Amino acid sequence: MTRMAAHDGVAVVTGGSAGIGAGICARLLEEGKRVVSVARRAPEITHANLSFLKVDLANRKETQDAFANLAGREKILLAVHNAGVIRPALIEDASVDDLDYLTELHLASMISLVQAALPAMKAEKFGRIVGVSSRGALGLQTRTNYAATKAGMFGMLRTWALELGGYGITSNCVAPGPVESEMFHEIVPDGSERKSKLAGSIPVGRIGAPEDVAAAISYFLSEDAGFVTGQTLYVCGGTSIGSVVI
Q: What fold characterizes domain 3-235?
């Protein structure tokens, strides 16, 4: 019996309605976990162990209230903050309002999730926190605000690794490269020459799939990863080694 089964906790996945988030939910459900998807729209998949919490994660009060209510009725032992948007713009057109929005979505809502989950994690002496950042945090054209907030996740998660390790709680980050998703296709149209060129420029020769990211997150959430904390794993097909233009 796994520790999660013994403690009867839930896994919370933000942005679990589609793309990478849906892939994460599907993987955790296959592993027998109970999963709560937190997003603005319902998940694409249905499952007896999957529930949905409708929340605008860029709305601070709504987010804090929703997570507090969830933590009041469930033990959140696995927390995956995946929700995100890009809002691309060259620096000449970068909007500080967009920076505020992405800060709420990428950073503030992750703080709210972790704060809600910590009482149960500390009581159980077991917890797993995973943030989904981006290879783009290393720098990418049109990503001023996106890169800034996704890079901010690195420091937050490393800080929590130091603060929470003694409670049996690990804190890690997964940074995907180009992955097939609705958000990706908003930038790179499916079937386009641009997509083919991008795939050819990736060292492994293909665009990633949500399942690639879900597999890495599954490891970080497992008991086997109890001695791994404060780390960032690039699931990027090798694009973090050099430059990529999308």
A: Rossmann fold (3.40.50)
